[in-house]
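Suppose a colleague, Dr. K., hands you the sequence of a protein chain of 469 amino acids and asks what its three-dimensional shape might be. Before reaching for any lab equipment, you can write down a predicted structure in token form. Begin with the sequence itself:
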Amino acid sequence: MAKKYLIETFGCQMNFHDSERLAGLLDQAGYEPTTEVIDADVVVINTCSVREHAEEKLYTRLGELRVLEQETGRKPVVAVAGCVAQQEGASLLKKSNGHVIDVIVGTQRLKMLPTLVDNAARAAFAEVDINPWDDVTFPLGITRRSDSVKAYVTIIEGCNDHCAFCVVPYTRGHERMRAKADVLAEVRHAVDSGRREIQLLGQIVNHYEAPDDPTCDFAELLAAVNDIAGVERIRFASPHPRHTGRRLIEAVRDLPKVCKHLHLPVQSGSSRVLKAMRRRYSRESYLELVNEIRETIPAIALSTDMIVGFPGEDAHDFEQTLSLTEAVQYHSMFSFKYSPRPNTLASKRMPDDVRDEEKTARIVALQSLQREIQTRLHERAVGSTVEVLIDSASRRHDAEVSGRTSGNTVVNCAMPALGAESNSRNANRGNASDWIGRTVDVRILRAGPHSLRGEAVVSNMRRHEFPPA
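The predicted structure, expressed as tokens, is then:
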């Protein structure tokens, strides 16, 4: 009987894609996936250092695994991967307070996981590999993609910018570009396996310059992906405002498969705080960029990241964050209370001088404002018809499916009836799996702060057929 593995992922899209790679490696090594920790021979915890309380989540989970071992007598091989593994290395063994970690594997040593797991299963000591950065290219077919509609494709690893709050340069290393030929080959492979949405990933995705084609910048790469037959939608994350120029804006406008959504992390509305963060743009230049984008692409949906309580942020700085949020009218926002990250410039040079109570009050105010803005924007969509790529069954209702607009807004709708009985109350609506991967025009009936709800216009459903993988 084959041994089984379970992968648990904390963090960003890059982490989730790394977990897909880890799953493929373990598949290739003869393991089988399981969703139950009690059945797992190997448990991999893929960690994040960017999100708040990442390490606490790790130690909590390690404690739960220790309790499970005591109650059942089963001891899986426990591997810690990702940014916390890279950041802490062997010190995790001491910090885990007796919780057993068998493998620690760094962000660019993922391909070593099966070997490290096998070694740890035979040895009485932990295997640690956080060696200098490895080749970022994975052979085609290794990745075990967990999403049947969307494929993540990494184009850049690492970052050279060293923003004061950010740990990425220290956990993922310096910036390394993948060859254009490798990126396009992976996109074609994903499309051949039935994926119709491609999401290009990089720490600063729009800083891309192809190492095998001096003429290919990020806008040119988008055009090349747009030309691949079978690709229906293209998204990317995350661009940096400083590198968002005219060529990229026009590419988003002109390339039909590129979604009309731009995630444009601002982090603060105060020029003084932005300078302390080393973001290399000001409030004024950011707003000028937003105006240029909106004038060029009137239908664009913007989202952002925001940090409150950065060292030195005072009440006036925070008011500027609120006023910028009101001015831009973001369709969505990821917002965080500042907390120091190891090795970052802010943690070394700036006292964490904003009280936690004040950080909490500020983030509550920011999130309340953003909720009002999202509600207003969503209410404007009521009565319109939007194109939705169905990507999942609804979490709340068995008879509903869910998808996203080009602008990345979640839309829930009842499963359309199948066949000639579509107008009958007793019509066959099939299963959710019948609709996942279809592009459906949906008439919006209701709006909430986080999603829209509507009914499918059945006559306008489309589904592309692909050869088997």
